[in-house]
Amino acid sequence: MSESANPVWYPFTQMKLAPSPIPIERAKDCTLYAKDGKTYIDAISSWWVNIHGHSNEIIAKAIAQQASTLEHVIFAGFTHSPAETIAQSLIQILPKGFSKIFFSDDGSTSVEVAIKMALQFWHNQGITHKTKIIAFEHAYHGDTFGAMSVGERNTFTTPFQNHLFEVHFIPTPNDKNSEEVKNQLSALAQSGKVAAFIFEPLVQGAGGMLMYKAKHLDELISIAQQNNVLCIADEVMTGFGRTGKNFAINHLTHSPDLICLSKGITGGFLPMGVTACTQKIYDAFHSTEITKTFFHGHSYTANPLTCAAANASLEILLSDKCQRQLKTIEESHQAFSEKIRNHDAVKEVRQTGTIIAVELQTEENTSYFNSIRNQVYQFCLDEGVLLRPLGNIIYIMPPYCITEAELEKVYSVILKVIERVKAKSFR
Ligand SMILES: Cc1ncc(COP(=O)(O)O)c(C=O)c1O
Description:
The protein is α/β, with parallel strands linked by helices. It has helices at residues 45-48, 57-67, 81-93, 107-124, 145-149, 178-190, 214-226, 279-283, 304-318, 320-340, 372-382, 404-422; strands at 24-28, 31-34, 39-42, 98-104, 132-136, 167-170, 194-199, 203-204, 210-211, 230-234, 258-261, 273-278, 346-352, 355-360, 385-386, 393-396. The site of pyridoxal-5'-phosphate has 14 residues, from helix 4.
């Protein structure tokens, strides 16, 4: 359909410049089948959600069964077992101390809920001066106003700048700056005015697949908690096996106070957000005073179909087969990293678990708006692989069921990209 005849306005898309979207008729495992007969390997799990690939039969069946039993019911004053089951299962695999699960709709709302819980946690105790939030530079936590506020201020957020609340941004730690970052966090935390510190653990996704070490984050969480600052781990992207463990925080020794989950939670079938919290947080709301209630909820909260998908998806994730798949992907990525690390057109290769990012060396600086992006994107599509570079950073974040042959194909397309960058064939 031509752009003018199509009533759909697509996300993150400059409608005047973008080519027509590709009509997809069906998808199975890692393959997308287009209307024109072309196929694409979905190497980014369709915006990082399809952890078990497309049209997974176990999840599809669970949803179908649920649909003919209970499709939806208001989630205040009523409850249902699919929601209670997924809540129980999550508590079992989250770090010790997490005891409550709050449902919402997507990654952004899981972050909104976490921020609101953190602020109200202090407010409910009559502590009204703890209102500031600390976040990392290059952070991305979603597109709603609270989530935008705690994310990096950039071209995406400029039109809304005056409406975003004040946040203290500190650099993401690395081996060189970690002492300085610790000092900055200490000074802010010791002011007594900070309610919470929010971070994407180990991998900052939309900010460019920037990766940092668990030991640095551990130290920062420790400083924050010693100074009565709540820690919010935004695991919307890193959760459910992405970093090789169930959650990125499983690589740490310190636990946060709140965790945001979404994306992979339903295996990519239906949208769901979850904010998990410790008993300490919950207790600050548990009161005979009505004003201490957490006044937040969405119409589709804990939709039974979504919960059924999440229950099925989690069972697959925890299976031996899936855990082996995570390991295999990680090992393949490691071998590929070594192969391309010293290539002239590669500025840096980064890898954590099932995520690998290749920063291309181009004449322009590293940026989401690097002009090579659109050419690389189109080249990969022409080669039958869906990769969606963040500027000059290409990354693979595959469904865990990707086959060795499919992964090899994705690597080979990236190799071709690298060779073309070296030969300056992209203009
Ligand atoms: C770390 C992180 N938090 C939050 C979000 C927002 O999630 P959603 O797009 O489902 O609102 C994203 C999305 O990419 C994310 O990567």
